[in-house]
Design goal:
The protein is mainly alpha-helical. The chain has twelve helices and three strands. A three-stranded mixed beta sheet has the order 2-1-3. Helix 1 packs antiparallel against helix 2, helix 5 runs parallel beside helix 9 and helix 10 packs antiparallel against helix 11. The longest helix has about 35 residues. It is globular and about 65 Å long. The termini are far apart.
């Protein structure tokens, strides 16, 4: 990435400067990351290995789990930062971290794809297999990943084309757009506009797909005569929309505001939600409350116990 900057590394402030909070924060965020790691890789593994989960919804869920694992792992430096006084990150490592976190766009598109899948299942059950074909699912997943990659490349180039002449203290726990823009000694007005419009378009498109899908689902539920069927459908929608609200709420709050109104302390809290908490919650929201996934999990645990007993 060509630029005229003299800065070769950045200093990440982190979440807190209070030494007394480092140990409890380390334990909390280590547990969050381990939960994210086990939950998302476990879900992806179950979907891959259990034939009963080879369905469109679970295919998209597996892709969502891999995306969650990928971009949440990009900020693991926050965990190590509680144990060491060295908070420096090289220029290239900062750009790489920013690229990986910006891949979060793929998650928003996968969430929209999952909403469309639920629309097809609830509103057009007789045409579900012809609507959500293998080619359609592959196209949705590949398209989401491709858009995530293009979004990451665009924003990384947009930010790191700027000059950073110093200071190099990033008031955040990872390399993110608002604090980096604040450090630039170039005119960042165009870069801010690019972020605003690109992020705004991506989020509005995904949210529109989700809202329209659930509007049709809601109307279909109202026509159902079975109270049990309504209750089950409402429960599924409530869980999904809760996670979507947390994800989009924190992301929109972070980016769709002018730089003059940013409060870095509040931004850090929002960032913790969308980079660490949401990826940990997704396996619970979308999987562990699902009967098929629970059965697949119990089956996998049973096989593991049998293998251990046979070994010993």
């Amino acid at each position: 990435m060509g630029n005229s900057t003299e800065v070769t590394e950045f200093l990440l402030v982190g979440l807190t400067g209070d030494p007394g909070l480092r140990a409890p924060f380390f334990v909390i965020f280590l547990l969050i990351y381990l939960g994210t790691l086990a939950g998302n890789l476990g879900v992806a593994g179950l979907i891959l290995l259990d034939p009963r989960l080879h369905a469109p919804m679970y295919f998209l869920l597996g892709n969502l789990s891999l995306v969650d694992f990928g971009y949440s792992s990009a900020v693991t430096q926050v965990v190590a930062g509680f144990l060491t006084s060295d908070k420096t990150i090289s220029y290239r490592a900062c750009a790489t971290q920013f690229f990986l976190v910006a891949f979060i766009t793929a998650e928003s598109l996968l969430l929209a794809s999952m909403a469309y899948d639920r629309y097809a299942a609830v509103c057009r059950p007789l045409h579900y297999t012809s609507t959500m074909t293998a080619n359609t699912c592959a196209s949705l997943a590949i398209g989401s990943h491709a858009c995530g990659f293009l979004n990451s490349a665009l924003h990384t180039g947009n930010i790191f084309r700027l000059s950073f002449c110093g200071p190099n203290v990033v008031d955040h726990f990872f390399c993110d757009a608002p604090p980096l823009l604040a450090l630039s000694c170039s005119d960042s007005h165009v870069s801010e506009l690019v972020i605003f419009f690109v992020v705004g378009f991506n989020d509005l498109f995904a949210i529109l797909v989700i809202l329209v899908s659930y509007l049709f689902i809601f109307l279909t539920i109202l026509k159902m005569r079975s109270p049990e069927g309504r209750q089950k459908a409402f429960s599924t929608c409530a869980s999904h929309l809760t996670a979507v609200s947390i994800f989009y709420g924190s992301g929109i709050f972070m980016y769709l505001q002018p730089s003059s109104s940013h409060s870095m302390g509040t931004d850090k809290v929002a960032s913790v939600f969308y980079t660490m908490v949401v990826p940990m919650l997704n396996p619970l929201v979308y999987s562990l409350r699902n009967r098929e996934v629970r059965c697949a999990f119990k089956k996998a645990v049973g096989k593991a116990k049998s293998s251990m007993e046979f070994t010993f």
